[in-house]
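The authors assume throughout that readers already know how a fold can be written as discrete tokens. For illustration, here is how one protein appears when written out as sequence plus structure tokens:
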Amino acid sequence: MVFFDRSEAFLCYGLVRVNYYLRGEGFDDTQSYMRPPPRLLVAARLLLGQTQAEVAADSGISAKSIFKAENGTAGIVSVEKLMRHYAAKGVSFIEPGSKPGWGIQTDFLQNDYDTESAALGQ
């Protein structure tokens, strides 16, 4: 027989609620998702040339949640939604693999420095 005190029972209940919520949002809670460091979320937003308010308007994620994600204090669901938004806009995160460290890849920046500068009129 297993006994739980109130805090353990609440924690178990909370985890069940979180798993149910994640399933409802379309997340597979059987996998371990790696989330990029907060600075990469900022970098992704800046690559798109958007402010937090603009990302909030485009994605449906609140500006407060974006602020929290970029400061490392957001919940899993907010970060995952933000990552999906950036992926839809052409920014993907590269997880550490054989080489250490995270990366960002875009599908909309195809030119080198000189070509891109000329396209921007500089």
About this structure: The CA atoms of residues 37 and 76 lie 12 Å apart. Residues 1-23, 28-32 have pLDDT under 50 and may be disordered.
